[in-house]
Amino acid sequence: MAIRKVLVVDDSKTELMFMTDLLQKNGFSVKTAESAEDAFRRLGEEKPDLILMDVVMPGQNGFQLTRAITRDPQYADVPIIMCTSKNQETDRVWGMRQGARDYITKPVDADELMAKIKALG
Questions:
Q1: How many helices, marked H, and strands, marked E, lie in the chain?
Q2: Burial class for 60, CB neighbours closer than 10 Å (0-12, 13-18, 19+)
Q3: Angle at CA 26, nearest 5°, toward 24 and 32?
Q4: Strand partners, 29
Q5: What pTM did the predictor assign?
Q6: How far apart are CA 23 and CA 97, in angstroms?
Q7: What is the DSSP code string of 25-66?
Q8: Residue 22, helix vs strand vs coil
Q9: Mean pLDDT of the chain
């Protein structure tokens, strides 16, 4: 499946701007969400081909949101890459257990992210 539409979920406007700019320059269509609630609203509007998920957010965190999305039959096939400042191995393992397909730590290396997206597509 070719990845064209990406949903970026992050409560940081700076991160959203950086990721949106990076992805658009690489030919992706990007939607953003600043919370779990916002993310579910976006999912309802248009199903993305990929979700880039922050972990540390107010309300429902990225681990919880990843688990909820991957357990929903309507969205279970959408790959999620955790994109977070949580850089401990236990965090990575926990993120993968919640259903994430990959895990990348901030600050995001553009080449590494593009390689991970290409590997999924």
A1: 5, 5
A2: middle
A3: 35
A4: 5
A5: 0.96
A6: 26
A7: HTT-EEEEESSHHHHHHHHHH---SEEEE-S--SSS-HHHHH
A8: helix
A9: 96
